[in-house]
Structures are given as structure tokens and as C-alpha cells.
Amino acid sequence: MAIRVLCCSGSLEGGGSERQLWQLATGLDAERFEAELYLLYRQGLYLSQIPPRIPVHDFWSSHSPHRFGWPGQIRRQQIQQLRQIIRQQKIDVVYDRTFHMSLLTAAACRATSTPRVSVIVSPPSLDFTRSRERFRWLKKRLLSAAYRDLLCRPVAVSDAVADDAASFYSVPRARFETIASPIDVAAVERAAKEIDADCTRVTATEGLFKIAVVGRLSSEKGQALAIAAVNELKATRPQQAVRLTIIGDGPDRQALEQAVIAAGLESCVQFTGRLANPYPWIEAADLLCIPSRYEGLPNVALEGMCLRSPIVATDCSGALRELLGKRERGVLVPADDVDALAAALRERLDAPEAWRERARQAAMWVREHHALQPWLDRMQQLFQQRIASRKQT
Known about the structure:
Elements: E1 3-9, H1 16-27, E2 33-39, E3 56-58, H2 73-88, E4 93-97, H3 99-112, E5 116-120, H4 124-127, H5 136-148, E6 152-156, H6 159-169, E7 177-178, H7 185-192, H8 197-203, E8 209-214, H9 223-236, E9 242-247, H10 253-262, E10 269-273, H11 279-284, E11 287-290, H12 299-306, E12 311-314, H13 318-324, E13 331-333, H14 338-350, H15 352-369, H16 372-392
Parallel strand pairs: 1-2, 1-4, 2-3, 4-5, 5-6, 6-7, 8-9, 8-11, 9-10, 11-12, 12-13
Helix pairs in contact: 2-3, 3-5, 9-14, 12-15
């Protein structure tokens, strides 16, 4: 009998966590596993790519926000709905990503004695602490209990994230397993070859230094640092034609656009908004910039490595240090250091062959260490282990 897996997410928007949940749900061996999805919001770029064989449940299409008034009432309704789905669909194991979903799945799985796998994608000492969650002290206690729960196998995307989570939640480090994020190399390469008229027009400009930044437009992603570094580059090399393309959307968009106007960089910086397919832009870039203040294992780094795009990133993540090495596969600069990032931009212009060699080494590394199928095999093995563990208790 096939193992029934419920994959849980807030939505299926275009972020790295949503993409990997989609990859898992659609990539499981259909002869051994039956996937279902639970979403809070039935929306997102990947929703149309869910095959009919995978049922999709969601919360808000059947609930009205006007029915909720007391603090915690929505959360209780979501947990109740999850419990019902787990029981009605005879779910064997639950999979979730991000602490928001873990808060819900932990309570539902505890009530139904259902094993679960909960993935932590960013260092909680930064990600959770800087979130705008209400009642954070209480939610931190709930998450600590959730990751200690013997029904749960907490998974971190890197050893650095696992170390941080163990310390932040006061959970034994041995409870955490590290499984690095994957990249579907063939799919990314195919998508990068699709025609994007705007990208083609930018690429055709002779002598243009093309920089790409991809991610949600929010303070932790550091797009303001990239804008400031481009401003410094233009100040030191006014004749150099530069185009910084910022791909994504989010709460900081207006502030970032105002920063561009204030710096007089309107001709150098463009905002594309969220793109269903950012890969032509990443492949066409002379430099992929990851200016984050903190990260777990950023998917855009894997995508850039896959497409042989030279990468400069802030030194904000142990996983990034492992990915890029000691300048073998990319260059790290201190976080929030405009001068250091601007110096890296100039170095990319002055030593192009060294940067292209790093990109070649990065492409080989990502194919060896982050291929999709080994990740799917490991996750399937982990689901089987969780079910076996439940039967033994």
C-alpha cells in the first residue's frame, strides 16, 4: 500500500521553500507514495503545475475572515481542519517547511499521532527573531516543543542552520538532520533557454555590465546594499554602463524604488517584479549578487551555480560558505559592507576570466552535491523511517 504524504505550505508562490515543496510532491515515486497538499492560501506560481492526481486542500477558500475575532481563533480552526484532513485522507506522514507551518502541523500531528518531517530553512535566531509574529515568546516555546516531539524529525538545510536551531530552541543537536536543498539542473537549464524579450533586449546592449539580484523585496534580502554598491561603482567608474536588475516583489519595493531615484540611478536599475521564470535573467547576468543579511541555503545560489553565473554574496550563511568555498566557486564579502561589495563589482570587471572559472567550478559542484534525485531518494527514505519509528513506539 502506498504511503500517503501530506505536504503543507502557506501557498505555492515562487519562493525557494514553495518550489521545493512542489518538487517533492510531484517528484515522489508514484508507485510507493501518494502526495496531497495542504495550503493556507490556494494561490501561487506552482499551483497550475500540480497534476490532477495530487489533491489540494486549503483553508481560506472555505473560511471567512469575518468569522474570527479572538486571538488564536484562526490558528485553532486551521489545526482542526488539518486534523480532519489527516484522519479523513488516512495520511501516514506530514511534511512542512518554515516555522509558520510547523506551528500548525505539530499540534495536528500530536492529536492524530501522525509522524512528521519539519524543515527549517533559515537560522531562527535571525529569521524568527526578526519576524513580525505576535506572541513570539509563546510561539518560540511551542516550536521548541514541536522539534522535541518524538513524532517529529526536524531537518535543516545546512549544518549552520541546524546548530542555530538547536541553540535557539534549546533542543538537542542530535535531533536535527541536515539535508541540503536540491536543484533540478535539467529543468533550470531548459527554463533558461526560454525567450524573454526584455532580457534579450538588455543582453544585446554592448559593453553593459549586467548584475542580477533575485529574491523577496524585504530587508533581510539586502537589495538596498546592491543599489548602494552600484551607486559607488558609478561614482568611481562613471563611463561604465551598468544595469542592476532586481527580480522579485515584497514590502520594501516602494522604499527601494525611492532609494534608486534618490541616488539618480533610474537608468541603471530596473525592477521586474516577481517572474514565473527568472532563469534567462540569471543566465544572462555577468554577475549574480546575493546581498542578504542572513540566509539558510539560498536557492538562487544553487540556480546561479547551475547556470554558470559568477556569484558574489554576503558572508551571511554557513551554507553559502560551503557552496562558494574559499573563492573557488564564488566570492563572499562582509554583510552590510557597501565598499566591499563595490570592490567585488570592480574585480568582476577587471578579472573576468577568474570569475568565469569560478562559475565553471560552481556548476560542477552543484551537480555533484545538490542533484534533485538523490534528495528525493533521501526524503522518501526519511518518510519510511518515520513511519517505521511510529510503529515501534
